[in-house]
Amino acid sequence: MTDQKRVRKAVIPAAGLGTRFLPATKAMPKEMLPVVDKPAIQYVVKEAVDAGLDNILMITGRSKRALEDHFDRVPDIEATLEAKGDTGKLAAVRESSNLGDLHYLRQGDPKGLGHAVLRAAGHVGDEPFAVLLGDDIIDERDELLTTMIDVQEKTGGSVVALMEVDPEMISSYGVAAINDVPGEAYVRIDHMVEKPDRDEAPSNLAVIGRYVLHPAVFEVLEDTPPGRGNEIQLTDALQTLARRDGEGGGVYGVVFRGRRYDTGDKLSYIQAVITLASDREDLGPALRAWIKDYASTLADEPRETVAAPAE
Question: How much is the pTM?
Answer without folding.
Answer: 0.90
